[in-house]
User: Which sequence fits this backbone?
């Protein structure tokens, strides 16, 4: 008789094997917590420009320039705008005046009407910075101002170009060049380029003294580089200067949890939560620490903490998602699934593929592999849309399990081939691949994979090991005495 994955015995083994593999997953917080921290622990925006002109030259209209500078120094931006508008009419190609107009409009904010530009374009701060650069491409301050503005408005590639140009201009004053380098370091850190970020921060520190913000940035860069000990040291240095900073406390707690030190994280978070009760980030991290604890009583506290936080912030998708993940980890997929379903409904036609994967996990735990497979096929349809290689591996692995449970061996093999582009095989994926080939009557391949599974599994997965030996004996009776028994 052929080997049938859909048989009752095999379905039992596949389901049990999925649960065994699930218990061994230890990186559950990677996606949900990163999403929460990205929303609640986001670093301050790159600072706005100041109004000093260390590299400016006297202009013919020096008296009016001085009046404008005095108005800017006094934060009388309306007066400065009036003076600078007149100056710009008299000398429309003066890079300093154009730069100052940009600074003034930034300070006044978008709600303040600005004078009409000479060419009828919208007279924004960006417009005047670009006009200043066009008038003098070697004016460093205008490149820095434009770069910082672009960074604050989410145009990182353009911002990086302007800031890099500023650092390469010979007339850039050390303080201005250091400012551009720090902004570049921040952009590269956010773009997961810690090597360049570290070099840029070091170059800035060679020009100007270290500030507390530099220590915090160094910690973030180290964390991006997965150098958790260095990140911990930097966050502790920062907290030595400002022990009550809740964002730095949360960042250090996040590192400690990544280092699998929940007790240390809890000790750090407890006084912080007492000082900042209800803080969303600190509360979420405290729930993570409880969940990671070996103490069942503490594990039981994780969901109630997040339930209270969710009740206070019902529209916060990141908190909702973290609560759903905690429900999964505490074996309550029935409570997780409605939360994931609501989150997906709110995302519309192009949902986050990692959210599709999350809900599919809940469906698998609820013994609904067909529905899970549908979501997972959508999640991996465009592998480049998944944010990390680990996220792609997770989704592909879950798809392989879902397909195996509904006797869809071709999809199982396709999913495992996708996973193999990211990670080497594990005992569980070897078993799935062997079973799928077995179902497709790829006998030689199945036997080889069953043997690989037995060698990799050791004493783990005894039920699947017994099944593998039985299948080898059936598929290749001449080898039945060569299969090791354990």
Assistant:
């Amino acid at each position: 008789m052929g080997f049938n994955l859909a048989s009752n015995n095999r379905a039992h083994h596949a389901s049990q094997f999925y649960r065994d593999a699930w218990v061994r997953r230890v990186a559950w917080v990677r996606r949900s917590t990163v999403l929460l921290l990205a929303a609640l622990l986001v670093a301050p925006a790159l600072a706005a420009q100041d109004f000093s002109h260390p590299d400016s030259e006297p202009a013919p209209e020096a008296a009016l320039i001085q009046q404008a500078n005095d108005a800017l120094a006094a934060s009388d931006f309306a007066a400065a705008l009036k003076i600078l508008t007149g100056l710009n009419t008299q000398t429309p190609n003066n890079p300093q005046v154009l730069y100052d107009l940009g600074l003034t409009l930034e300070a006044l904010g978008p709600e303040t009407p600005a004078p009409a530009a000479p060419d009828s374009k919208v007279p924004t701060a960006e417009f005047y910075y670009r006009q200043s650069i066009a008038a003098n491409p070697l004016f460093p301050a205008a490149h820095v101002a434009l770069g910082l503005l672009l960074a604050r408005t989410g145009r990182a590639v353009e911002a990086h170009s302007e800031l890099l140009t500023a650092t390469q201009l010979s007339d850039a004053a050390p303080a201005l060049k250091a400012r551009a380098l720090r902004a570049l370091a921040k952009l590269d850190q956010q773009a997961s380029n810690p090597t360049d970020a570290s070099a840029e921060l070091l170059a800035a520190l060679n020009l100007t003294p270290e500030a507390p913000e530099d220590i915090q940035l160094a910690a973030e860069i180290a964390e991006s580089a997965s150098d958790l000990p260095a990140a911990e040291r930097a966050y502790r240095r920062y907290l030595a200067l400002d022990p009550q900073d809740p964002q730095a406390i949360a960042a250090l707690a996040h590192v400690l949890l990544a280092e699998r030190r929940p007790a240390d994280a809890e000790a750090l978070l407890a006084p912080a939560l007492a000082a900042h009760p209800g803080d969303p980030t600190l509360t979420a991290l405290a729930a993570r620490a409880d969940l990671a604890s070996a103490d069942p009583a503490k594990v039981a506290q994780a969901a109630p903490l997040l339930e209270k936080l969710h009740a206070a912030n019902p529209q916060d998708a990141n908190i909702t998602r973290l609560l759903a993940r905690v429900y999964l980890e505490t074996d309550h997929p029935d409570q997780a699934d409605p939360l994931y379903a609501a989150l997906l409904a709110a995302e519309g036609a192009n949902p986050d593929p990692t959210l599709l994967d999350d809900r599919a996990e809940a469906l698998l735990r609820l013994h609904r592999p067909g529905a899970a497979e549908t979501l997972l096929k959508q999640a991996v349809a465009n592998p480049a849309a998944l944010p990390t290689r680990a996220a792609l591996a997770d989704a592909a692995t879950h798809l392989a399990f879902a397909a195996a449970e509904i006797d869809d061996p071709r999809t199982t093999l396709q999913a495992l081939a996708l996973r193999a582009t990211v990670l080497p095989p594990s005992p569980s994926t070897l078993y799935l691949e062997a079973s799928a080939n077995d179902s497709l009557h790829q006998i030689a391949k199945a036997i080889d994979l069953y043997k690989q599974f037995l060698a990799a599994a050791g004493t783990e997965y005894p039920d699947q090991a017994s099944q593998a030996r039985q299948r080898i004996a059936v598929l290749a009776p001449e080898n039945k005495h060569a299969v090791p028994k354990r």
About this structure: The mean pLDDT is 85. The CA atoms of residues 380 and 395 lie 7 Å apart. The chain is about 70% helix and 0% strand.
